[in-house]
From TrEMBL:
<dbReference type="InterPro" id="IPR000873">
    <property type="entry name" value="AMP-dep_synth/lig_dom"/>
</dbReference>
<dbReference type="GO" id="GO:0019290">
    <property type="term" value="P:siderophore biosynthetic process"/>
</dbReference>
<dbReference type="InterPro" id="IPR011963">
    <property type="entry name" value="DHB_AMP_lig"/>
</dbReference>
<dbReference type="InterPro" id="IPR020845">
    <property type="entry name" value="AMP-binding_CS"/>
</dbReference>
<keyword id="KW-0067">ATP-binding</keyword>
<keyword id="KW-0808">Transferase</keyword>
<feature type="domain" description="AMP-dependent synthetase/ligase">
    <location>
        <begin position="32"/>
        <end position="398"/>
    </location>
</feature>
<dbReference type="Pfam" id="PF00501">
    <property type="entry name" value="AMP-binding"/>
</dbReference>
<dbReference type="InterPro" id="IPR045851">
    <property type="entry name" value="AMP-bd_C_sf"/>
</dbReference>
<protein>
    <submittedName>
        <fullName>Enterobactin synthase subunit E</fullName>
        <ecNumber>2.7.7.58</ecNumber>
    </submittedName>
</protein>
<keyword id="KW-0548">Nucleotidyltransferase</keyword>
<keyword id="KW-0436">Ligase</keyword>
<comment type="pathway">
    <text>Siderophore biosynthesis.</text>
</comment>
<dbReference type="GO" id="GO:0005524">
    <property type="term" value="F:ATP binding"/>
</dbReference>
<dbReference type="GO" id="GO:0008668">
    <property type="term" value="F:2,3-dihydroxybenzoate--[aryl-carrier protein] ligase"/>
</dbReference>
<comment type="similarity">
    <text>Belongs to the ATP-dependent AMP-binding enzyme family.</text>
</comment>
<keyword id="KW-0547">Nucleotide-binding</keyword>
């Protein structure tokens, strides 16, 4: 682990164990224990097609059998497996099978395309890639064929559904074999993705110990117990619906997970009524849509819903105030990151705190620093950069020593790139962002990644991608482009098409493209993104009048 991912220094690990945060649990054993305690209780409800209801016993057995099959295919401890599945029951069968043999799921999102998947498979030297045959009209088998042609080391493509030229997940032999060498609690469980701010997404190494602690802490804060029913409305692989408290928190508690194939009210509201859902998590734009749909009057009974978690991007105070009246449930704001630190407003916080802050950390051992540009600590109430260190925050990205040297302080604090203010009560208010990223309603876009794609176009001399304000998503992306001298005319739609055809997630395609002769510069001659952001915001404002 030491060479791939910087671990926790021994004195910190000892402290986190002594404090009772790390309890030596693993995901494989967790599921085994729950299944032994209540084999007949429903774990997963997958309503797509004919509703499937898997009990804890069934999920445990499926994970075991698939684990044996994966071992027979030659996939074993420490191997990476890129998992790109929509919200289907098999997601849990696959990841628990991988957990059990100590292979590491790499959590891709259904929106990812050639560019991202090729990178994940090549960079992690993945042994296998797991996809659904077709979802939302997109054929992942074709994507897999292209990736496989480019990444020769990728030995297996496993498909949920009709496999085409690949291997059917259902056809993997499942004769029980003893699982050798179960992973240890301090070892890596999976690689999560960072929204990032660099040319390629960074991978986040999480251990069983640290992640399970974040689940246990989240469950306590969100009052998740065995009677809870969690609706997974966002893409299951994302860190928020996975862990805050998410599907894995729900399974840790012995609760029930209901998978929504889509997060829209027309799909989610009937599921809430039918399955008596008690909590769910949404990004701000979706929370707005749900609030509006409920306020306009819905025929569905949403009275089982106790808690709506909203996070991933800043939730406006006005929108936050409307949640309880419209949906009849409590709001919890959650400000989290796949790198670790997660903050929640508490269920007993005063209403003002719930609607005006993004919560406070899970753990008393989460260390929070708010600093100026020179890393000097600022007084409480001042706005500055958020640095953090703690029992479930990574000490470094996976195989990224150079990046780690700047993304972490010498003493191991993660530089979140978020600009925050701490209140007297210890709650954080997100005031902005220093990292070069656009937060498109919770979907993160690294400016540099998109700039690289634009720069690949023969007519593009330079590109600078910035956020522009948007009433629905909070932010959208605007790409400023300087064309090469003598380049023929290029129109924005052609440039967008060019980027799309390079194969990347649709949410990363620039929403708007502006051509300029040159970029504004800062005092020392760097591109002034601040000026570019101001320019596009002013144009949009002027266009409104
Ligand atoms: P990632 O590192 O890709 O997991 O994305 C985490 C980032 O999402 C954080 O560092 C914040 O920039 C942003 N974020 C998450 N939740 C919130 C929130 N409630 N308010 C504002 N920003 C958020
Ligand atoms: O945006 C995020 O990454 C996020 C938001 C809320 C997250 O990782 C989380 C909660 O755990």
């Amino acid at each position: 682990m030491s060479t791939d991912a910087p671990g926790y220094p021994p004195e910190f690990a000892a402290r986190y164990r002594a404090a009772g945060w790390w309890r030596g649990e693993t995901f494989g054993r967790m599921l085994r224990d729950r299944a032994a305690a209540h084999p007949g209780r429903i774990a997963i409800v997958d309503p797509a097609g004919e509703t499937r209801r898997w009990t804890y016993g069934e999920l445990d057995e499926r994970a075991d059998r698939l684990a044996a099959g994966l071992l027979a295919l030659g996939i074993g401890k420490g191997d990476r497996v890129v998992v790109q599945l929509p919200n289907v029951a098999e997601f849990f069968e696959v990841v628990f099978a991988l957990f059990r043999i100590g292979a590491l799921p790499v959590f891709a999102l259904p929106a990812h395309r050639d560019s991202e998947i090729r990178h994940f498979c090549a960079f992690t030297e993945a042994a296998a890639y797991v996809v659904q045959d077709v979802a939302e009209g997109y054929d992942y088998r074709e994507l897999a064929s292209r990736v496989r042609a480019d990444v020769p080391g990728l030995r297996h493509v496993l498909v949920v559904g009709d496999p085409g030229e690949h291997t059917a997940l259902a056809g993997v032999p499942r004769d029980p074999v003893p699982v050798p060498d179960e992973p240890e609690p301090h070892e890596l469980a999976f690689l999560q993705l960072s929204g990032g701010s660099t040319g390629v997404p960074k991978l986040i190494p999480r251990t069983h110990d640290d992640y399970i602690y974040s689940l246990r802490g989240s469950n306590e804060i969100c009052r998740v117990d065995e009677h809870s029913v969690y609706l997974c409305a966002l893409p299951a692989a994302h860190n928020f619906p996975l862990s805050s408290p998410g599907t894995l928190g729900a399974l840790y508690a012995g609760a029930r997970v209901v998978l929504a194939p889509r997060p829209s009210p027309d799909v989610a509201f009937p599921l809430i009524e039918r399955e008596r859902v008690t909590l769910t998590g949404l990004v701000p734009p979706l929370a707005l849509v749900w609030t509006e749909a409920a306020a306009a009057g819905t025929p569905y009974d949403l009275s089982s819903l106790d808690v709506l978690l909203v996070g991933g991007a800043k939730f406006s105070e006005e929108a936050a105030r409307r949640v309880r009246p419209a949906l009849g449930c409590a709001l919890q704001q959650v400000f989290g990151m796949a790198e670790g630190l997660v903050n929640y407003t508490r269920l007993d916080d005063p209403e003002e705190t719930v609607v005006t802050t993004q919560g406070r950390p899970i753990s008393p051992d989460d260390e929070i620093r708010v600093v100026d540009d020179e890393d000097n600590d600022l007084p409480v109430g001042a706005t500055g950069h958020l640095l953090t260190r703690g029992p479930y925050t990574i000490r470094g990205y996976w195989r990224a020593p150079e990046h780690n040297a700047t993304a972490f302080t010498a003493d191991g604090f993660y530089r979140t790139g978020d600009v925050v203010r701490l209140t007297e009560t210890g709650h954080l208010v997100v005031e902005g962002r220093a990292k070069d990223q656009i937060n498109r309603g919770g979907e993160k876009v690294a400016a540099e990644e998109i700039e690289n794609h634009l720069l690949a176009h023969p007519a593009v001399h330079d590109a600078a991608v910035v956020s522009m304000p948007d009433t629905y998503l909070g932010e959208r992306t605007c790409a400023y482009v300087v064309l090469r001298d003598g380049a023929g005319p290029v129109r924005p739609p052609a440039l967008k098409k060019f980027v799309r055809e390079r194969g990347l997630a649709a949410f990363k395609i620039p929403d708007r493209i502006e051509f300029v002769a040159a970029f504004p510069q800062t005092g020392i001659g760097k591109v002034s993104k601040k000026d570019l952001r101001a320019a596009i915001a002013a144009r949009l404002a002027a266009a409104q009048h």
